[in-house]
Design goal:
Layout lengths: L1 E7 L21 H12 L7 E4 L3 H13 L5 E3 L10 H4 L8 H10 L13 H17 L4 E6 L1 H13 L6 H13 L7 E6 L7 E4 L21 H15 L14 H15 L14 H12 L5 E9 L4 E8 L2 E8 L2 E9 L5 E3 L16 H13 L1
Parallel strand pairs: 1-4, 2-3, 2-4
Antiparallel strand pairs: 1-5, 5-6, 7-8, 8-9, 9-10, 10-11
């Protein structure tokens, strides 16, 4: 059985909203570097082959894993991101500044169209994704880790799942809808499998995805396919609740961060010369998860305040202090389940059941590796 892990690169400067001078040399942010490190630590065993896109953000992400498994062959394949806009006119622009060009390109729905010098047609892009699948099938390696880009990864998944008979304007529109609906977060992706007797591939969610859980009666957990999108929505809701002019509509996830920044800018402008009547914001799930990460990486002093259990089947919670942050974590059948509540050193509160934050769990925002390390840390206290 052949196994292929398709992994999107870590957060890049462009993902964070910065302008980029060249689409191929966009660097990772510090957060992206940490994401890449966590991916490398999530491998239970060494793959047979590591493959990366030639673009620097994918190369940098892959190198963390390549360094961890220095004896594994490393190859660069043409699995770079879909460059459908002319690179020259995109130089020194942000995602937000390119939005109108993006919308115009997809509204055209012409798979043979090339935007300009250095741009790729949709036909060429899909052909490249199919060639990648063919090369994977022919390669002797059975366990392959691939570091690529969101649109290329979704093109591969779309070819496997939807099996388009021809690439025309309708197929192009269908792929665009598929790509938006199945947005791939940084350092997440899919797993491909192929049995020697099977003619085609099978695709399933990657190992680093956060899925749906339902383990405690009466408590629902939010399905989080895209942790980053969840955090954007959470921050957007907090701004809206605070009276900031933000509309939570059905715009694609790729524009959510941009809409959030626009709302912040408008809010700052409207608040000039005024005294804010809004109380200090409550803690967010992301803030709490970052405190847990500080503990995991040993950058904070963590101590156990208490631990309780009850019932015939072990259940209870850990009470810990992380540099003044008081955190309670529910433990079910000797496994970490979810964060119950948190109080920051300045007195702000977060709880699992708090208003519109119900179901947004800091534990669920950790990677698989981080979750395992936190569990070991707590049990060792």
């Amino acid at each position: 059985m052949k196994h292929v892990r398709l992994i999107r690169h870590g957060e890049s400067a462009a993902n964070a909203g910065e302008a980029s001078s060249d689409h191929a040399s966009i660097p990772l942010t510090p957060k992206g570097v940490e994401q890449a490190h966590l991916v490398a630590g999530a491998f239970a065993q060494a793959p047979d082959l590591i493959v990366a896109s030639p673009f620097s953000r994918a190369q940098a992400t892959a190198m963390e894993t390549a360094t961890a498994f220095s004896s594994v062959p490393f190859e660069t394949w043409p699995i770079h991101e879909f460059t459908y806009l002319e690179p020259g006119r995109c130089a020194n622009t942000t995602v937000a500044q390119r939005r109108d060009w993006v919308e115009a390109y997809w509204a055209r729905a012409d798979p043979a169209f090339k935007d300009g010098e250095g741009a790729e047609s949709f036909l060429d892009f899909i052909s490249r994704a199919q060639s990648f699948l063919d090369r994977l099938a022919e390669h002797p390696a059975q366990d392959i880790a691939v570091f690529s880009h969101g649109q290329l990864i979704n093109a591969v998944a779309w070819l496997i799942e939807c099996r388009p008979q021809k690439i025309d304007g309708q197929a192009m529109a269908e792929w665009r809808e598929y790509e938006i609906t199945n947005h791939v977060p940084n350092c997440s992706g899919y797993k491909l499998t192929k049995h020697p007797d099977d003619a085609g591939w099978r695709v399933s969610p990657g190992e680093l995805r956060i899925g749906v859980t339902q383990r405690v009666t009466g408590r629902s957990y939010q399905a989080v396919r895209d942790p980053e999108r969840l955090l954007i929505e959470e921050r957007a809701q907090a701004l809206s609740a605070a009276g900031y002019p933000l509309k939570l509509d059905d715009d694609p996830a790729m524009y959510a961060e941009q809409r959030l920044e626009e709302a912040r800018a408008e809010a700052r402008s409207s608040q000039v010369g005024r005294v804010s009547q809004n109380p200090a914001a409550a803690l967010s799930a992301r803030e709490v998860s970052q405190v847990l990460r500080e503990a995991i990486f040993g950058r904070s002093v963590t101590s156990k305040v208490g631990q309780e259990s009850w019932g015939e089947i072990y259940a209870g919670h850990f009470q810990i202090n992380v540099d003044g942050w008081e955190i309670s974590i529910y433990d079910d059948c000797d496994q970490l389940d979810y964060c119950e509540k948190c109080i920051s050193p300045d007195g702000r509160h977060w709880s699992f059941d708090s208003g519109d934050r119900f179901g947004t769990d800091p534990i669920a925002l950790l990677s698989v590796w981080e979750h395992q390390m936190l569990e070991k840390l707590l049990k060792a206290l």
